[in-house]
């Protein structure tokens, strides 16, 4: 019996080490927001099927980029899987933070053609437009609008709006129409409460005002660079159309937003809408399931529409993220296993049902998808018109310059729109010169 | 004869070691004692400083570890000193530091003087007054954003009560003219008690006999205040100004929570700007030069001030 003891101990050790190798403890890093809770729920199936355990590291949006980019830049091993912002992909790819997934996708038969094209370009590719994939589209998101349908449908509102503007009070087709509606509701008394026109993004610290203002800039003619040379900025970033777009956003801020909304981003605009302060709300689509369920404004009381067109086009700011495997992870195989599991159509379908916005064509093009939720058609329409911010390795510098220039003009009222955009061009040129791209 | 502490230490030291120590000079023994501290200081203070100075002459970026690091000479310093944005943040910082010191000294001294009158319940009042400085600046910044909220914030309603203005007609943290004052008000609310405590210590250190002598000489209360109280409290007051000046020069958390540097860059003090350059834009070389400039500025000003403080103390 004693002779067998060392053998049994050794065998137990081998089994223990083998099972340890098989079942990993994976950490997934993302922003702390409603979809993250849905992902926890979804991931329970993965844990049950794979035997791996999942931990989640969620950071609130204002600190998300700071915290996670610090983690990546310091080559930290906290995160095995990262659902990083779309703009990080250039930096993460060039600095070696993410594992390139092309070979893995080929092995697993995962095709990027199966996903909404804009999400593949936005979340997965670097360099853009090339078949080099660093992420799997995980959460499709886009800026859109919610409105108080119950206020719009009131007969007294309809009549007064018709008399004032000569058209029916309805979902706006253009940004100018949107401003009219916001102006109409600004300072109005509804059921004894003073309400305001629109809650829009004005946040200064992270990315808020940029994610808001681009919805006007794109539609008035702003482009990030010349079609022939993406780094040729002068005349594109500060074009006549771009100036008009920036002026429009400032007018909207000045005329039609609630008092004290000088530093608002996602959570503040949600609060304003849910508390019945505003008729219109600009926000990413991720909030729509929550709004629909809200006791105060949910159900039929709220409607959804894509960002309205402008004189030079019809676009909306892309949000959303792809899921990547962090190259410093000790659990690369298990992390890849998670991605393979997550890419399955039935998992993606369940993701949508739980409140996650799937980017898989099989889900969003399925019969009945558009009617599956009151906001589903708006989501589809919005995803068809998306445009994204720079995804260059120096995106943070580009973003902070834009935050600074735009906030100074729109909120602080410094200078003119032309001066703000000229200064932005100068800032961006300096960044690209430092990068050696100019 | 009772054994002293030195005797006990000597008897407890193993002979092998005591023989070695016996051959050492006092200076060598002193170095043995302070050596670990000196090494620690060099590692955590001096080396990073020297490294920062070195980085300030390069284009190094901490988020691109693989990228080639170039020696750029004085380019970073030139850029910073010629950048109007940096000068704007310096102005915002100067405005903040000057006015917070002004109000904190004025109100802090007045409160200390009142508390020193030894009225009934002054201990309770002292405790109540010092409460704000016990809070975390991040918490203070966060709840003042609610107090300043135009629709629900109590601050606007208090202003309305006294002026009759519509509370929603002005936004303390959203208006370029008011935002710099909004951070001054909050910092003053939070840190005046600190100045008060130091002044109180100064006031309580003045011997009663001086005032009694002045009374005998029939000096008026006003004269006693200017010729006894103020000169004797002045070194304490200057010390409080030094502490608060240095703290406010590097103020970060309170302002970030309150305004985030906005609107525009109206309240973007140097520490916020430096943090953006260093840890958001990741321009490590550039931000090192920026940090060196700030260090030299604070160090220089503080040195001049400490000399003045010593002169006042020795008067």
Provide a brief overview of the structure:
The complex is a heterodimer of chains A (438) and B (315). Chain A has helices at residues 4-22, 34-50, 61-73, 89-94, 102-108, 117-124, 149-152, 155-165, 175-185, 208-220, 240-256, 266-274, 288-293, 332-342, 345-354, 361-364, 369-372, 376-383, 395-410, 417-435, and strands at 25-31, 53-59, 81-85, 136-148, 188-190, 193-199, 278-284, 302-306, 316-325, 386-387.
Characteristic key phrases:
heterodimer; A: alpha/beta; D-Maltodextrin-Binding Protein, domain 2; 2 domains; 10-stranded mixed β-sheet; 20 helices; 10 strands; B: MetI-like fold; 72% helix; flat
Oligomerization state = heterodimer
The rounded distance between the terminal residues' Cα atoms of chain A is 77 Å
CATH domain class of the largest domain in chain B? Mainly Alpha
Tell me the Rg of chain A in angstroms. 24 Å
Number of domains of chain A: 2
Order of helices and strands of chain A: HEHEHEHHHEHHHEEHHHEHEEHHHHHEHH
Indicate the proportion of strand residues of chain A: 15-25%
Tell me the name of the CATH homologous superfamily of the largest domain in chain B. Answer: MetI-like
Query: Mind telling me the C-alpha Rg of chain B?
Result: 26 Å
- Biggest interchain interface, per-side counts: A-B, 31 and 34 residues
Number of helices of chain A: 20
Integer count of domains of chain B: 2
State the CATH class of the largest domain in chain A.
Answer: Alpha Beta
Query: How much is the average pLDDT of chain A?
Result: 92
Could you characterize what this model shows?
The complex is a heterodimer of chains A (438) and B (315). By secondary structure, chain A is an alpha/beta fold. Chain A folds into 2 domains: 185 residues, D-Maltodextrin-Binding Protein, domain 2; 221 residues, 3-Layer(aba) Sandwich (D-Maltodextrin-Binding Protein, domain 2). In chain A, strands 1, 2, 3, 4, 5, 6, 7, 8, 9 and 10 form a 10-stranded mixed beta sheet that branches. Chain B is built from 14 helices and no strands. In chain B, helix 3 crosses helix 14 and helix 5 runs antiparallel to helix 11. The mean pLDDT of chain B is 91. Chain B folds into 2 domains: 51 residues, no CATH class; 238 residues, MetI-like (MetI-like fold, Orthogonal Bundle). Chain B is mainly alpha-helical and 315 residues long. Classes of the chains: A alpha/beta (438), B mainly alpha (315). Chains A and B meet through helix 3 and helix 19 of A and helix 13 of B.
């Amino acid at each position: 019996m004693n002779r067998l003891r060392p053998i049994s101990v050794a065998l137990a050790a081998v089994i223990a080490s083998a099972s340890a190798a098989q079942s990993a403890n994976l950490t997934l890093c993302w922003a702390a927001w409603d979809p993250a809770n849905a992902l926890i729920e979804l991931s329970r199936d993965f844990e049950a099927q794979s035997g791996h355990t999942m931990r989640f590291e969620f950071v609130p949006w204002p600190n998300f980029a700071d915290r996670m980019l610090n983690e990546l830049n310091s080559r930290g091993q906290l995160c095995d899987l990262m659902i990083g912002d779309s703009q990080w992909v250039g930096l993460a790819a060039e600095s070696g933070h993410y594992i390139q997934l092309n070979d893995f996708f080929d092995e697993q038969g995962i095709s990027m053609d199966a996903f909404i094209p804009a999400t593949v370009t936005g979340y997965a590719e670097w360099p853009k437009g090339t078949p080099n994939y660093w992420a799997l589209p995980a959460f499709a998101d886009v800026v859109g609008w919610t409105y108080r349908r119950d206020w719009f449908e009131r007969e007294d509102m309809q009549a007064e709006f018709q008399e004032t503007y000569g058209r029916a009070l309805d979902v706006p087709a253009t940004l100018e129409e949107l401003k009219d509606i916001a102006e109409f509701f600004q300072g109005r008394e509804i059921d004894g409460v003073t309400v305001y026109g629109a809650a829009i993004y004005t946040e200064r610290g992270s990315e808020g005002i940029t994610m808001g203002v681009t919805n006007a800039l794109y539609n008035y003619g702003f482009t990030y660079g010349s079609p022939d040379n993406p780094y040729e900025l002068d005349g594109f970033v500060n074009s006549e159309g771009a100036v008009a777009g920036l002026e429009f956003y400032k007018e909207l801020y000045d005329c039609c937003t609630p008092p004290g909304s000088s530093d608002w981003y996602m959570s503040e605009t949600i609060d304003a809408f849910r508390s019945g302060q505003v008729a219109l709300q600009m926000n990413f689509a991720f909030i729509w399931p929550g709004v629909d369920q809200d006791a105060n404004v949910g159900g039929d009381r709220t409607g959804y529409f894509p960002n309205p067109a402008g004189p030079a086009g019809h676009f909306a700011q892309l949000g959303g993220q792809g899921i990547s495997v962090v190259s410093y992870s000790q659990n690369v195989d298990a992390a890849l296993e998670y991605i393979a599991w997550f890419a399955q159509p039935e998992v993606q379908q369940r993701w949508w049902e739980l409140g996650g916005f799937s980017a898989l064509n099989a889900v969003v093009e399925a019969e009945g998808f558009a009617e599956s939720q009151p906001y589903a058609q708006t989501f589809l329409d919005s995803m068809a018109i998306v445009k994204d911010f720079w995804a260059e390795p120096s995106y943070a510098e580009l973003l902070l310059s834009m935050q600074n220039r735009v906030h100074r003009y729109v909120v602080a009222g410094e200078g003119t729109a032309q001066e703000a955009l000229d200064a932005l061009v100068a800032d961006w040129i300096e960044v690209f010169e430092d990068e050696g791209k100019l | 004869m009772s054994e002293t502490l030195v005797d006990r230490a000597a008897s407890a030291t193993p002979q092998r070691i005591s023989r070695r120590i016996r051959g050492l000079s006092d200076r060598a023994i002193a170095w043995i004692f302070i050596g670990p501290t000196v090494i620690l200081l060099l590692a955590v203070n001096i080396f990073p400083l020297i490294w920062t100075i070195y980085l300030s002459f390069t284009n190094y970026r901490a988020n691109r570890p693989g990228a080639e690091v170039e020696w750029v000479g004085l380019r970073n310093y030139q850029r910073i000193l010629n950048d109007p944005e940096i000068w704007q943040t310096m102005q915002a910082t100067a405005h903040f530091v000057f006015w917070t010191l002004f109000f904190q000294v004025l109100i802090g001294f007045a409160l200390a003087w009142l508390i020193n009158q030894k009225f009934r319940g002054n201990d309770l009042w002292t405790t109540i007054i010092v409460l704000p400085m016990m809070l975390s600046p991040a918490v203070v910044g966060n709840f003042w954003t609610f107090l300043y909220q135009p629709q629900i914030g109590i601050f606007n309603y208090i202003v309305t009560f006294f002026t009759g203005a519509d509370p929603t007609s002005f936004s303390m943290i959203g208006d370029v003219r008011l935002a710099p004052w909004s951070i001054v008000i909050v910092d003053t609310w939070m840190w005046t008690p600190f100045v008060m405590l130091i002044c109180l210590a100064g006031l309580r250190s003045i011997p009663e006999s001086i005032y009694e002598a002045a009374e005998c000489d029939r000096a008026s209360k006003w004269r006693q205040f200017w010729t006894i109280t103020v000169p004797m409290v002045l070194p304490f007051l200057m010390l409080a100004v030094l502490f608060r000046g240095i703290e406010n020069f590097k103020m970060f958390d309170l302002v970030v929570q309150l305004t985030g540097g906005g609107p525009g860059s109206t309240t973007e003090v140097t520490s916020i700007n430096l943090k953006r350059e260093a840890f958001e834009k990741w321009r490590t070389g550039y931000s090192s030069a920026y940090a060196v400039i700030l260090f030299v500025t604070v160090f220089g000003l503080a040195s001049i001030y400490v000399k003045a403080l010593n002169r006042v103390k020795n008067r």
